[in-house]
Design brief:
mainly alpha, 68% helix
Length: 303
C-alpha cells in the first residue's frame, strides 16, 4: 500500500517538478554561469561563450550609466518605499477602523493595480504632467501658482521624481491590502481593553497596532524590494527613445545590453553582462530578505 502511494506521489509530482526545473531552475543556473562569460546572444551555444571571470561585474561597476541605474533604483527603493509604506499604512489603518464605505474606498485605492502599467504611465505623462492642460498644471494655476504650473514635469531635471510619484501612486493599494490583512488579524479585545484603560487613538496605534505588524512590515519590505528590482516599464515610458541617466534602472540597462541598443552609448550586445546584472539584483533581494529576517525574528500575531 505504501509502495503504491509513493508511486502515485511520484507520478503526480513528476510533471510539476519537470516544469519547475525547466522553467525556473535551468534558466537560473544558466544565467548565473553566463554572468562569468562573454556571450553576445542569450541563445548562443555554450561553446561560443568566452570565459571572463569577474570581468563582467568589474565592467559594470566602472560604467557610469550602470552606476546611475544603481543610484536611481536605490532612490526608488528608499524614498519611494518610505512614501508607499507610510501612505499605504495610513489607508490601511483608516479602512480597518470601522469607516463607512470600506469596500468602495478599498476598491478605488487598489484600482491602479488592475490597470496596465503602460496605460497608467501614459495617463500620467499626457493627462497629469502635461504643462498645457494636465491635471497638475490646472490645479496649480487655479491656486495661483503660475510659475509652478509651467514646470516641465517630464523634463530632464524633474523626470525622475515625476516617474517616482507616478509609480508609487500605483503601488499604494497593493501594500495597503497587506497592511489591512495584518491589522484585521489583531483581536479587537486588545483595543477594547486599551480604550477602557483610557488610551487614545494614537496610543492604541503605537502600543498595539505597530508592534503586532512587524511580520507584515517584513513582508511588505521584501515584496517592495522585489517589485523595485524589476522596475522597467516606467523607465521605458518616461524615456522612450534613449536611455537617460535620470530614468535608467538596472533592468532597462540590462534590456539594452541583451536585446540591442537604442542608445549610442551601448553599441555591442552583451548577454554575459546582462546576466551579471540579474545576479546583482538577485543578491540585493536576498540581502534585504536576510536583513529583514534578522530585524523581525518572530511573527507579529501568534495567539
Amino acid at each position: 500500500m505504501k509502495t503504491k502511494n509513493k508511486s502515485m506521489i511520484v507520478i503526480f509530482l513528476a510533471p510539476a517538478v519537470f516544469l519547475y526545473a525547466m522553467v525556473f531552475l535551468y534558466p537560473t543556473i544558466r544565467t548565473v554561469i553566463m554572468s562569468f562569460f562573454k556571450a553576445e546572444g542569450v541563445t548562443d551555444a555554450v561553446s561560443a561563450w568566452k570565459f571572463n571571470g569577474l570581468g563582467n561585474f568589474r565592467t559594470l561597476f566602472h560604467t557610469p550609466l550602470f552606476m546611475s541605474a544603481l543610484q536611481n533604483i536605490g532612490l526608488i527603493w528608499l524614498v519611494g518605499g518610505i512614501g508607499v509604506m507610510l501612505v499605504s499604512l495610513l489607508f490601511g489603518v483608516i479602512l480597518t477602523s470601522g469607516v463607512h464605505g470600506k469596500s468602495f474606498f478599498r476598491s478605488v485605492i487598489y484600482l491602479p493595480n488592475v490597470i496596465s502599467a503602460v496605460a497608467m504611465g501614459t495617463m500620467w505623462i499626457n493627462y497629469v504632467y502635461n504643462p498645457n492642460f494636465g491635471l497638475l498644471s490646472s490645479i496649480l494655476k487655479a491656486l495661483g501658482f503660475s510659475e509652478a504650473a509651467a514646470t516641465q514635469w517630464t523634463g530632464p531635471e524633474m523626470v525622475f521624481w515625476s516617474m517616482l510619484v507616478a509609480y508609487c501612486f500605483g503601488m499604494v493599494g497593493y501594500h495597503m491590502l497587506i497592511w489591512m490583512s495584518g491589522i484585521e488579524r489583531i483581536p479587537t479585545d486588545f483595543y477594547e481593553a486599551a480604550t477602557i484603560e483610557g488610551a487614545n487613538v494614537f496610543q492604541r496605534f503605537s502600543k498595539i497596532t505597530l508592534p503586532l505588524l512587524k511580520g507584515v512590515c517584513r513582508t511588505n519590505i521584501v515584496l517592495w524590494t522585489v517589485s523595485t528590482m524589476a522596475f522597467f516599464v516606467w523607465s521605458q515610458l518616461f524615456s522612450p527613445v534613449n536611455l537617460s541617466a535620470s530614468t535608467v534602472t538596472p533592468m532597462s540597462y540590462m534590456y539594452e545590453l541583451v536585446f540591442g541598443a537604442s542608445n549610442s552609448a551601448i553599441t555591442v550586445r552583451d548577454s554575459g553582462a546582462g546576466a551579471a546584472i540579474g545576479v546583482i539584483l538577485t543578491i540585493v533581494v536576498v540581502i534585504v530578505f536576510l536583513f529583514t529576517q534578522l530585524i523581525v525574528r518572530h511573527d507579529d500575531v501568534e495567539l
